[in-house]
Amino acid sequence: MRRNVAFYLVLLAAYAAYSAAWSYIALAKVYGLRVTLGDLGIIVQGAWDSVHSGVQGFVNYLTGQAALLIYALFLPLGPHMIEALVIFQTLWLGAAAFPIFAIARRYLRSDVAALMLAISYLIYFPLAGVNWFDVHRQALFPTLFITSYYLYLRGGRSRYVSVPLMIFSSMLRFGYEVYPLWFGVTLVGYWALRDRRERFGLAAGLTLIVASLLLAAYNVGILTSLFTSPTKAIQAAPASVSSTASTYLRLTPGLSQLLSINIVAPPVAEPGHVQLLYVRGYVVDALTIGLSLLPVLFLPLLSWRWAPALLPFIALLAFSSYWGYHYPYFFRFEYPSIIMAPVWLGTVEGAAVISRGSRRVATYVAAGVLVMSAVTAAFFEPYGPLNYMSFTDYQLSQWTSFNVTYYESMIDVINMVPRNATMIAAQDNMPELLPRPNGDVLLGCIEANQSQYIVVNVIHGLYLYYDNTDVCGKSMLEVADWALRSGYGIVAEEGGTMLLERNYSGGVVAFRPYSYSYGAGDLWPLFTAWYGKGYINVTSFHYGRLEGLFAEPHALNFLPGRYNVTFYVMNDGLSPSTRLYAVVTGYYISGDGLLTQITLLNESVPVSLLPQGRWVRLTLSFYSPTLVGLGSVTLLSDDVNGTLLIRGFSIAQTSPS
């Protein structure tokens, strides 16, 4: 008994480590404004709608979107709902390790092997994508289905709980009825071919089959009622999802060229090109399936019960051109939850097939799974030391950087928007705007000139540049500049978040400055330079001029207002005749819709202001008349005699517009 407790304690420790690490990542993305209105916002609003839609609406949600009813339990938390949801999803996803451990003990008769498989699940790299990208309905399915399967195997009264629980798991998200349906088929088949005394299995199987088919039919009926025909319902559903998801990929052409970002569009079947699409797609599909099964050594293919359960996903790959189902995007989003349950149940059964009752062999097989899971995790998990080399480079340090003060400032600004307001233009990283009555309007296409309020945040600037679906294909950079020229007034500027209101003529009622700070390691010299301890020698003797200093363009964005830029520099023998030029530039969308460069600062700095041999702060002021993105900071000189060292620079807002 003590031995069994020890194994559970080890697993509990692994689960705690997993939960702590992923909860931090999830919260850091929330506080860093890197969660989305188009996904997490949909969940939050859907949870609110599920309990405010009357009896018929409640039934519709229960039968095909039941996960939203679970998420609705967090609505009383108000603005903290989003934080609670991302932590809950992390805890729930990791909890599947416990039924996997229990199932593996029954099949393999080895606590050691079972423990290694359960820990392997926690580092299974496709799980990372589910945890990484916001919160989704299907994320609840694997743990619930695997748990219900364990309860069935346990026997006794637990089996009476397992069947309704498995049916409920299929109600979490439409389309997942296929797994209880298949399990029901296996139970009926086992009764017919192996053991006709297993009457409960027959009854359970028939119940699962009938319930799954009825649920599927009911949900297809709901979809059909939304469109004019079943065919249009099937065609329109992926398109609606794709239009939302494409928010994350599309940049305006000018910005795409400026940033030198090559975006490969997902394949689209066109007349005369269908065969080429499928030839190319088969390779991608093989990578998707192969990489999903590699960490578990392809063991699910040995399971007579769960290998066939992968066929619906294979069919989905073959017939769907939606990019999210295919390599490499599949592993960065929530879609691996589609196959998690059959993969891991099949892994346990596949290990049992190989071991044939031998605990030693089972231990070796489980050790192989653990090693391969660890190796692939090193490349494909966000925390993997080799992740930067992989196609799923999460850029963990960048995507988990945050400032809680700026996040709280954004919440304060959002709270200034009236609760009943729905005509709001906002960029895609503000799910905190929801839920609200009729909040679904915010998730649709709102023309900028229809908006009563416009909310902009510049801290995670890349969202400024997307052609947001929510504002009918325009970037917030364009929307904000148009609004400032069209009678919208600035109500608040707090911590990088700006609130505009139509026909507002009062002053700024709330202001909190924000700032950027860059060390030597963050700067991009134009040409050659050498680094010392915490500084850069930016003097180019070859070109006879001082080189430019750039910060990452995604980060430098300016709300309307006044700013100070401060350079931390040392004059190491510059001649008195040398003149430096401090330049701050950026881009805005002009009235004709073109990306236009604007110079915010171009000031000559006499070297006499920089005493030799001492680190000093050189501070200059500039003004931004509108919302400016893609900012850069440069120090230039055409006549350098001596050396200039720099440790970094900072930019701080001093007053609103």
Automatic annotation (TrEMBL):
Domain of life: Archaea
Pfam families noted in UniProt: DUF2079
InterPro entries: STSV1_Orf64 (IPR018650)
Keyword terms: Membrane, Transmembrane, Transmembrane helix
Protein's name according to its UniProt entry: DUF2079 domain-containing protein
Acyltransferase is among the record's keywords: no
Statement: the UniProt record of this protein carries the keyword Transmembrane: yes
TM segment ranges: 58-78, 84-104, 111-129, 135-153, 174-193, 205-227, 277-299, 306-325, 337-354, 361-380
